[in-house]
C-alpha cells in the first residue's frame, strides 16, 4: 500500500463517567493507506464508533495521536477540524441522516454549500455523484418517496460529492435488507476501485465483511486482530 493517510499511534480514549472515567479505546496502533477498503469489526461496545469519530475529527484522543491527511486531530481548532471534514472526509451513517424536507438533489448539494463553488459547478458535481449511485432519475424526489436502499445511496452520493479522500461508514447496512445491502456495498466497492477513495467501515454485518479487503477486529477497546483478507484467499 502507498502513502499512509491515517496514522493512529498509542491512541487511548477515555470518557468521563460519574466521578471517574471509562476507557473506550486502549493503545490503538493502526495505519491506513490510500485506497483501502477496511472494516472495524467487533461486538457492540468494542469501540468501533469511537474510533471512527476520532478519525473523522468529531472527537479527539485522550492520549496518543491520530494523524489524518498529515494533520494531528488533537491540534486542530474547531474551524480547522470542520475544514478537514468539509474537504477530505465523507460520512455515511446507519440512519442515512437525510433532511426530509429537501429533495435528493438538495440533500447532496447541501454538502457543497460550504465550499466556494458556482451554481453550475455544484450542479455538475451533484449530478455526477447521483450518477455514481444510479439515482439521477430521482433528483427531484423527497427522501420519504425512496426505499431504504435508495436513501442510503443518496447518503453515499452526499458523502462522495466533495470527492473526499476518506469515507467513514458507520454500520451502513444496519437498516437494509440483503439485496439493498449488496447493492450499496457494490456501489462503494466501485467508488473505491475507480476513484481510489479509502473506505473504513464499522460493522458486525457478515455481508459487509465479505467485501472488506482488510478486517480489523476490536474487543474491549483493543485491536485483537488485523488481517488482509485477499492474502487469506
Ligand atoms: N460519550 C460517551 N461517554 C461515556 N461512554 C461512552 C461514550 N461514547 C461511547 N462510550 C462507551 O464506549 C464504549 C465503546 O462505544 P462505541 O460506540 O465506540 O462502540 P461500538 O463498537 O461502536 O458499538 P456498537 O456496535 O453498539 O455501535 C461503549 O462501552 C460505550 O458505552
TrEMBL record:
Keywords: ATP-binding, Nucleotide-binding, Transport
InterPro entries associated with the record: AAA+_ATPase, ABC_transporter-like_ATP-bd, ABC_transporter-like_CS, ABC_transpr_LolD-like, MacB-like_ATP-bd, P-loop_NTPase
Domain (ABC transporter): residue spans on this chain: 6-232
GO molecular function: ATP binding
Matches recorded under SMART domains: AAA
Tree of life domain: Bacteria
Name recorded for this polypeptide: ABC transporter ATP-binding protein
Natural source organism: Carboxylicivirga marina
Amino acid at each position: 500500500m502507498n502513502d499512509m493517510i491515517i496514522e493512529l499511534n498509542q491512541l487511548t480514549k477515555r470518557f468521563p463517567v460519574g466521578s471517574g472515567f471509562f476507557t473506550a479505546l486502549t493503545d490503538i496502533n493502526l495505519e491506513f493507506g490510500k485506497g483501502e477498503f477496511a472494516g472495524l469489526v467487533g461486538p457492540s461496545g468494542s469501540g468501533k464508533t469511537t474510533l471512527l469519530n476520532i478519525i473523522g475529527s468529531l472527537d479527539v484522543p485522550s492520549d496518543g495521536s491520530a494523524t489524518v491527511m498529515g494533520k494531528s486531530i488533537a491540534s486542530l481548532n474547531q474551524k480547522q477540524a470542520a475544514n478537514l471534514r468539509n474537504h477530505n472526509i465523507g460520512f455515511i451513517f446507519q440512519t442515512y441522516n437525510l433532511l426530509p424536507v429537501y429533495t435528493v438533489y438538495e440533500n447532496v448539494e447541501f454538502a457543497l454549500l460550504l465550499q466556494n463553488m458556482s451554481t453550475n459547478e455544484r450542479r455538475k458535481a451533484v449530478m455526477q455523484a447521483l450518477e455514481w449511485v444510479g439515482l439521477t432519475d430521482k433528483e427531484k424526489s423527497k427522501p420519504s418517496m425512496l426505499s431504504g436502499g435508495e436513501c442510503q445511496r443518496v447518503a453515499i452520493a452526499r458523502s462522495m460529492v466533495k470527492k473526499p479522500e476518506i469515507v467513514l461508514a458507520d454500520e451502513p447496512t444496519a437498516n437494509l435488507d440483503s439485496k439493498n445491502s449488496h447493492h450499496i456495498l457494490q456501489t462503494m466497492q466501485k467508488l473505491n476501485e475507480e476513484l481510489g477513495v479509502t473506505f473504513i467501515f464499522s460493522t458486525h454485518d457478515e455481508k459487509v465483511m465479505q467485501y472488506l479487503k482488510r478486517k480489523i477486529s476490536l474487543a474491549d477497546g483493543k485491536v485483537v486482530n488485523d488481517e488482509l483478507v485477499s492474502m487469506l484467499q
